[in-house]
């Protein structure tokens, strides 16, 4: 069986595709997997690092409004469709699974042209343009959010890496804290703005550092690979550990009692899967989907939420310190977050994909 995965640009598109690839390989070690991407996306680094074949097609960003740029789209899109169709011919694709992003649109249209079964997975509560198109071309539509408005969609959750969904935070806590140079017995706050970091979170957390330290709270702060600090927190106890990037986010989650973070779809899915409560600060730009991502978690008691414009060091001191100083409340919120999580989305979607591919072969 040969499966082609189309999801590129951001980690939010690529990571679920790679989690599905891992689940497919677990179910059938002989399955062939080819990932489609563009040269401008993170997939050029992430896909080969996970050991999967990557084939590139031209990127065709679709303008969201009628502009002069729209006139150049048909010709460029045709070239990308031809490239994607050629790849599907070479690998003899049995099914295409799309996750959105620039590469998904030509992939969906190429699969339709070649008669290859199409599977769409939309992680966000507000589907992007590519997946809205893809959902019109197939009956096989799956979502990572229960309220995503796509016809015939089935909610399965977001495929996550096995090291995340199998993580036992309680048994791994001491080892994880030692890994980052943290004390084993102190309340721990994880601060992260996602794969690129977030300036507003960085500034507010660093300004709150003296108060957090006085209250006996240690901090693991992932500032993002492109960010630097003008002033480092002074050395002392409890520890305030600053890192630009963390490869082992499973250990970061295990080390923490609470998180201060953005509310991207992947972040919300991972935190609920591991049962880590959080203060969510939705990205202030875009279409508001990050607020929708976090809302069910907050309503279920697994987190709190604040607007980016209202996030200050004073807010952290007044709202997070009382939670971190109350272990019983942390446990209650952790259990509530865990109830919202889906740990089986990768295997569930993998079984569906294999079934759809088999049905396509038998026609």
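^ structure tokens above, recovered residues below v
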């Amino acid at each position: 069986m040969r499966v082609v995965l189309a999801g590129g640009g951001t980690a939010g598109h690529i990571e679920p595709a790679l989690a599905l690839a891992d689940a497919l390989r677990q179910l059938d070690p002989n399955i062939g997997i080819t990932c489609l991407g563009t040269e401008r996306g993170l997939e050029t680094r992430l896909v080969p690092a996970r050991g999967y074949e990557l084939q590139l097609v031209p990127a065709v960003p679709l303008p969201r409004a009628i502009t002069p740029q729209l006139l150049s789209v048909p010709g460029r899109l045709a070239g990308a469709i031809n490239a994607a169709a050629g790849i599907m011919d070479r690998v003899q694709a049995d099914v295409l699974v799309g996750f959105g992003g620039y590469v998904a649109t030509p992939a969906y249209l190429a699969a339709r042209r070649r008669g290859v079964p199409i599977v769409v997975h939309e992680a966000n509560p507000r589907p992007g343009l590519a997946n809205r198109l893809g959902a019109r071309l197939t009956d096989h539509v799956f979502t990572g959010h229960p309220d995503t408005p796509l016809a015939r969609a089935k909610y399965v959750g977001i495929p996550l890496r096995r090291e995340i969904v199998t993580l036992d935070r309680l048994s791994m806590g001491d080892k994880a804290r030692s890994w980052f140079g943290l004390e084993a017995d102190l309340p721990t706050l994880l601060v992260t703005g996602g794969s690129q970091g977030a300036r507003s979170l960085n500034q507010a957390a660093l300004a709150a550092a003296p108060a957090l330290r006085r209250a006996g709270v240690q901090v693991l702060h992932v500032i993002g690979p492109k960010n630097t600090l003008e002033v480092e927190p002074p050395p002392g106890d409890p520890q305030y550990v600053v890192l630009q990037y963390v490869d082992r986010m499973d250990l970061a989650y295990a080390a923490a009692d609470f998180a201060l973070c953005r509310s991207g779809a992947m972040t919300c899915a991972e935190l609920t899967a591991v049962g880590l409560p959080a203060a969510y600060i939705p990205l202030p730009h875009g279409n508001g989907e990050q607020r929708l991502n976090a809302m069910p978690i907050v309503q279920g008691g697994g987190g709190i939420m604040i607007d980016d414009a209202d996030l200050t060091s004073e807010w952290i001191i007044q709202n997070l310190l009382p939670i971190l100083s109350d272990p019983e409340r942390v446990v209650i919120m952790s259990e509530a977050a865990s109830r919202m999580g889906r740990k089986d989305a990768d295997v569930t979607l993998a079984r569906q994909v294999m079934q759809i591919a088999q049905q396509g072969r038998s026609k």
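The CA atoms of residues 210 and 250 lie 27 Å apart.
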